[in-house]
């Protein structure tokens, strides 16, 4: 095996300097250590999971409220229906009494 020529050594040295400059530029652009990234990522993941749980709890509460409101609406409509039926019965009895008085007293 032959020793590299001085030109080859210079080329390798320039490649190494270029690689070091690239790494320096990346670090300056905001690259962070892996352990710091993972710690921040884990913290964000926990926050997101807590937010998702809160949203799911809120959705469950809204669904329960909607069901309760629907039940109240059904009860109200049932009461209105009963009142209408009673009004019709009272009206029919009143008309019947009026017709009976008119026919009998006439």
Keywords, separated by commas or semicolons:
mainly alpha; rod-shaped; 90% helix
Description of the molecule:
- The protein folds into two domains: 1-31; 32-105.
- Helix content is 90%, strand content 0%.
- The protein contains two helices and no strands.
- The termini are far apart.
Give a quick summary of the entry.
With 106 residues, the protein is mostly helical.
Distance between the termini: 140 Å
**What overall geometry do the principal axes of the alpha carbons give?**
rod-shaped
User: What is the tally of beta strands?
Assistant: 0
What is the number of domains? 2
Structural class determined from secondary elements? mainly alpha
Estimate percent helicity. Answer: over 70%
Topology order in helix (H) and strand (E) letters:
HH
The main pleated sheet reads as:
none
Please state roughly what percent of the residues sit in beta strands, choosing from under 5%, 5-15%, 15-25%, 25-35%, 35-45% or over 45%. under 5%
Please tell me the overall pLDDT.
89
Helix count equals 2
Radius of gyration: 43 Å
The parts where pLDDT drops under 50 for at least 5 residues are: none
